[in-house]
Specification:
alpha/beta, TIM Barrel
Length: 219
């Protein structure tokens, strides 16, 4: 069993509740969406116009283990368009890793081991992919799974609020992230909206873009 790999690297977790912690990132090739603000177009483009690197699950696990880091994130692109991704996640869990999955939420998480922390991105209007989220995924969440809204405008923020109030009232608010599109929205405005609305959600910044060049790969 093999998967198409864009890159594997060791860095600090830039987002989620584990931001700032060392993490190994396994970025898979290919994506089924085309978001306006996408910052990893190379992952989708690699599968479309180049020959991706094919690695077996065993080879991926061995490379992850070589970094001697207990946390690993499977990301993309969109990891769940590759049918072997759940098997990779299960193998990493069996080896004792804490596993995170970053997914755009358009694919079912029902077959992903619930011991994995699923981080799902509900697409807002400015992404150009609003409506792509599979809301049945909320039925398969555990309390430790995380929801992310990438916000680039007031309209995006209001959409996020509507989804939170309609569908996520029982989900832990500390696991709901409001994430500004880097450089597109005033952070103080977004913070003020969250506080004014008593939203309780987490304002999450992309730490890796603050620490390093925003366009730098492998960080």
């Amino acid at each position: 069993m093999s998967l198409d790999i864009c890159e594997i690297f060791y860095s600090l977790q830039g987002e989620s509740t584990r931001a700032g912690l060392p993490c190994v990132f396994v970025r898979l090739s290919g994506c089924n969406l085309s978001c306006s603000w996408c910052d990893t177009t190379y992952a989708a483009a690699q599968a479309a116009s180049m020959t991706p690197v094919s690695m077996t699950i065993g080879q991926i696990v061995d490379q992850v283990a070589s970094f001697e880091c207990p946390m690993v994130e499977i990301t993309g692109g969109e990891p769940l368009i590759q049918p072997q991704t759940p098997a990779l996640i299960s193998m990493l869990l069996e080896k004792g890793f804490q596993v995170l999955l970053e997914t755009n939420g358009s694919q079912s998480i029902a077959f992903v081991d619930p011991a994995c922390i699923r981080i799902m991105d509900v697409k807002c209007p400015s992404s150009g992919e609003a409506g792509s989220f599979l809301f049945d995924n909320f039925n398969h969440m555990t309390a430790k799974d995380e929801i992310k809204f990438v916000v680039g405008s007031r309209q995006d923020y209001e959409y996020a609020v509507s989804v939170i109030k309609a569908r996520l009232l029982k989900h832990p608010r500390e696991h709901i992230h409001i994430c500004p599109v880097f450089g597109r929205i005033e952070l103080s405005d977004l913070a003020a909206w969250i506080l004014k609305d008593r939203l309780g959600a987490r304002l999450s910044l992309q730490q890796h873009k603050i620490i390093w060049d925003p366009d730098l790969r492998g960080v």
